[in-house]
Automatic annotation (TrEMBL), chain B:
Its main location: membrane. The lineage of its organism: Bacteria, Pseudomonadati, Bacteroidota, Flavobacteriia, Flavobacteriales. Residues 41-476 form the FAD-dependent oxidoreductase 2 FAD-binding domain. It is an enzyme of class 1 (oxidoreductase). This is succinate dehydrogenase. GO terms for molecular function: electron transfer activity; flavin adenine dinucleotide binding; succinate dehydrogenase (quinone) activity.
Length: 253, 677
């Protein structure tokens, strides 16, 4: 049996968007190093319930706990999804922390992601960007051509796939000093522009999505690459360059 | 209590099986385009089934109201499906066909699914791939640019299309994109972070739902001309499962309690390749894709001593020679080997661990190896040949082989390493079965309508296509087939008949008042309960009872005990649960969980009753009393070739539910005992 760990947690509490937020300190004991960060929060919430001293548990977003749904967030010790690379918070394990360490837990901080409660933010601005054009306008009722009628070179297909792995968690925005959503938007733009099916609408798509991103209040990219460093799926800033190219191209050709 | 006769009209069309769907479609009535925009349809759940239904129905011109409990439809749990989606395209030229896919699915389901539904699914499968390619799903491609496939358990052909280990994600995102396009047009109104808490029935037909806005806490009323339930499965009854934390039974359970019949509740699939349980703090289990069994070989040590040394860490898997390993699936099932169906693979792992050969280094002692060493070697050699490297060193071969494995399963290996802190390229993965998918669900007819007129059920939430066991890569297929291609036709038949007599229903109708009051009373009861234990405490205890007695194997004594224990636990829950928070006071995850666990505490009893009734072993339902000498499942087709269909009567307890039977007839396929030897 490995040694169990104790932590001091400073957690951001905020009743809702309008109320003022603050850090509250909690102690947790006997945490297994194999426990995930969210399992540690479960335990803390259970403690809060049993104590009956607070009116509500700590709200945080989570769902699949397999690193794929993109629901979990959390800014941990100043990093989106905490101190490890290529993971979401649900896949962060307590063995990455020292016994007795003080851990700061905050929500994603960005104007286009308003706080709902405690650590939960509203990421529907991402949905609105997709609604503005993040699709191929094909009818869904099944009268399309055979899949193999559209051969796609493997390198193109792989590149499109790498862009498509974005889970829309918002870590890129949270990590960026400008609160830019360029990595998220560029991933979708690139996926479709690289595929023959998506080429037809490429001009309209990139213009609509970029305009919507600006309208939602996300900042601009200044190439610091913090997004790439914190992206749980390792999406490259190369796609931002690709999108910029697509954007310029859409005016010129 | 059991009754044989009932109004169960499956509406399976007559005629030969390969023309049933075609003929049926020609008899279905249509709704004219100018009427469609006046028709409102509610869709609960926005995974592959719900999302594709939303996209297709709004594409046709209906007004859709879509509900999901997540913050965006993009996060529905279909996103986590890894391995792939089946289609009988025969691109590989290995003699695949609609019949083969149909036959494998029927056999895989242990002859407990509805023949006509399964055939239709196999028929439509090819269409789905074409549709998804057109929507920009980046499926794997070969070097010539054509679609790549791989194999899954229970089949001898290569028919599974995939996008690395993220097929579910890519399919869901394309569905979500198609939905987004319609949201932009105003044809779909999206209700994120909403949970359905009751179905409203007016004059015998489904006319709306009561939903809770999870952010504001407000209870809302929504009307529609039809309600579609696409809320997924109920595996979280077991507490630990591969389902997302929010996956729940509430929507289907509310429909059931309003009169919707529930079919085959006891069929829960246990998936053989999950990361083993490692501690009691754990909140869920993580699945490693079944596709790994294409290249991974499953083994435990042959000698008990070796197993013991593995468990106390004195021996490593690398120290056990080839001769000292028991590749028990290859030994027992030579013709399918590691690719036997999930129920067979799961039971075989349980059998080995119960005999003491489990290798996990903790008190459960439950775990077997999934080893990629042979595959890495094989691919390394092939790759070296391809690159023209003469006499490659072992290290070179290993590196080349690892590259090939990386390209096939990279993200799964990465995930495994993050969770377990072990590198699966160097040392074999440890796996053990875990609760995964529920084949039971609300009863539907061939048109996918439940026993309540106007209430449709699609995807994992219904029961019809997978029988007693689901083959890999067929859940995605069913979800998309139902949503994109079946429901849009069949629902029109109902709506066309209905539209002539329908007038717009007001949310002020007394049935809405009644339902809303019930929902509010229950929330009040939960929040004002003077208890002291958390919801999770009860959920874990329920999970233990279910896993122990209604899990991978069941027997009469255990099931009878479980029913009593669940009843007692339910009473205790209502006496002693403590839910913090105030009514209407916004986001309250504990309240959401409490409502769901209260439902699980009822559904769990029904699952157990169903398992007790079925005195045979079939698919995922293994009754210890009914097995062959070799320990294989022993089916009883004479007495149990039926779907058990349960009816809840208002104000009665779960134990008073009445069971009806839908007899299963097979005309196209010969019912045989299922062997994978």
């Amino acid at each position: 049996m490995k040694k169990l760990l104790n932590f001091k947690l400073k957690i951001w509490r905020q009743e809702n968007k309008k109320e003022k937020g603050y850090f509250k300190t909690y102690q947790v004991h006997d945490i297994s190093p194999n426990s995930s960060f969210l399992e540690m929060l479960d335990l803390l919430n259970n403690q809060i319930i049993c104590d009956k001293k607070e009116s509500s548990t700590i709200a945080f977003d989570h769902d699949c706990r397999e690193g794929i749904c993109g629901m979990c967030s959390l800014y941990i010790n100043g990093r989106a999804h905490g101190p490890d690379n290529l993971i979401t918070t649900c896949q962060l394990h307590m063995r990455h922390f020292r016994d007795g360490e003080t851990i700061y837990v905050e929500p994603w901080r960005a104007n286009p992601f308003p706080i709902i409660k405690d650590l939960v933010v509203d990421r529907s601005s991402f949905d609105r960007i997709i609604i503005s054009g993040g699709f191929i306008s094909v009818n869904t009722l099944g009268k399309t051509i055979d899949g193999n009628m559209i051969p796609i070179p493997k390198d193109k297909a792989d590149k499109a796939f790498d862009a498509a792995t974005c889970i829309g968690c918002g870590a890129c925005v949270a990590a960026c000093k400008n609160r830019s959503a360029m990595l998220f938007v560029s991933a979708k733009v690139s996926q479709f522009s690289l595929l023959p099916q998506g080429k037809i609408e490429r001009k309209k798509r990139v213009i609509n999505m970029v305009n919507k991103m600006d309208e939602e209040g996300f900042g601009s990219c200044t190439n610091t690459k913090a997004c790439e460093a914190e992206c749980p799926k390792g999406i490259s800033t190369e796609y931002i360059a690709f999108m910029n190219n697509e954007y310029i191209r859409s005016f010129t050709i | 209590m059991t009754k044989n006769s009932l109004k169960l009209n499956s509406k399976v069309p007559s005629g030969t099986i390969n023309y049933k769907w075609e003929n049926h479609k020609s008899t279905l009535k249509l709704v004219s385009p100018n009427n469609r925009s006046n028709i409102e349809i509610i869709v609960v759940g926005t995974g592959l089934a719900g999302g594709s239904a939303c996209a297709s129905l709004s594409e046709l011109g209906y007004q859709v109201k879509a509900f999901c409990y997540q913050d965006s439809p993009r996060r529905a749990h279909s996103v986590a499906a890894q391995g792939g989606i089946n289609a009988s395209k025969n691109y590989k030229g290995d003699n695949d066909s609609i019949y083969q896919l149909f036959y494998d699915t029927i056999k895989g389901g242990d002859y407990r699914s509805r023949e006509a539904n399964v055939y239709r699914l196999a028929e439509i499968s090819s269409n789905i791939i074409d549709q998804c390619v057109a929507q920009g799903v980046p499926f794997a491609r070969d070097y010539a640019g054509y679609l790549e496939t791989r194999s899954f358990g229970g089949t001898k052909v290569s028919r599974t299309f995939y996008a690395k280990g993220q097929t579910g994600q890519q399919l869901l995102l394309s569905c979500y994109s198609a939905m987004s396009r319609q949201i932009g047009k105003g044809r779909i109104k999206m209700y994120n972070r909403h949970e359905m808490l009751d179905l409203v029935i007016i004059e015998g037909v489904a006319r709306g739902i009561i939903a809770r806005n999870l952010i504001s806490g407000e209870i809302e009323r929504h009307t529609a001309n039809a309600v579609i339930i696409a809320s997924g499965g109920y595996g979280n009854v077991f507490f630990l499962s591969t389902n997302a934390m929010g996956s729940n039974a509430s929507a289907i359970w509310k429909v059931h309690k309003k009169g919707g019949l529930f079919a085959n509740p006891c069929y829960t699939q246990i998936h053989p390749t999950c990361i083993p349980v490692h501690g009691n703090y754990q909140s869920k289990l993580t699945l490693m894709s079944e596709s790994l069994r294409n290249d991974g070989r499953i083994w435990v040590p042959k000698k008990l001593d070796d197993a013991i040394s593995m468990r106390n860490g004195t021996k490593k898997p690398e120290n056990i020679s080839e001769e000292e390993r028991d590749y028990y699936l290859e030994r027992r099932y030579p013709s399918y080997g590691n690719l036997v169906p999930r129920d067979v693979a799961s039971r075989a792992a349980k059998e080995r661990c119960e005999k003491g050969f489990g290798i996990e280094e903790n008190e459960t002692k439950e775990g077997v190896f999934l080893d990629f060493h042979s595959a890495i070697n094989k691919y390394g050699k092939e790759k070296a040949n391809e690159l023209g490297i003469i006499n490659p060193s072992d290290l070179e071969k290993m590196n080349l082989g690892e590259e090939v494995i990386e390209s096939k399963y990279g993200n799964l290996f990465h995930m495994y390493e993050k969770i377990t802190n072990q590198n699966p390229y160097k040392t074999p993965m440890k796996i053990y079965p875990a609760v995964h998918y529920t084949m039971g669900g609300l009863w539907v007819d061939y048109n996918l309508m439940s026993s309540i007129p106007g209430c449709y059920v699609i995807g994992e939430a219904n029961f019809s296509d997978h029988g007693a066991n689901r083959l890999g890569a067929s859940a995605l297929m069913q979800g998309l087939a139902d949503g994109y291609f079946i429901l849009p036709y069949t629902i029109a038949d109902y709506l066309s008949r209905y539209i002539r007599v329908s007038k717009k229903i007001s949310t002020q109708h007394e049935e809405f008042d009644k339902s809303e009051k019930n929902v509010k009373d229950r929330i009040k009861k939960l929040l004002q309960n003077n208890g002291s234990m958390s919801v999770d405490y009860f959920h874990k205890r329920l999970g233990n009872i279910m896993w122990e007695h209604v899990g991978m194997s069941r027997n009469h004594v255990g099931l009878s005990e479980a029913i009593k224990s669940i009843q007692l636990l339910r009473d205790e829950f209502w006496k002693n649960v403590f839910v913090p928070g105030k009514i209407d006071n916004g986001l309250n995850a504990e309240l959401e969980k409490a409502g769901r666990v209260a439902d699980f505490l009822e559904l769990g009893e029904l699952m157990t009753m169903d398992a007790l009734n079925r005195k045979e072993s079939c698919g995922s339902h293994f009754r210890e009393e009914y097995q062959t000498k070799e320990g294989e499942a022993l089916r009883d087709d004479i007495h149990y070739k039926y779907v058990s269909v349960w009816e809840y009567k208002e104000n009665m307890s779960i134990s008073d539910e009445i069971m009806y039977k839908e007899n299963l007839n097979y005309t196209f396929v010969k019912v045989q005992s299922r062997s994978y030897k």
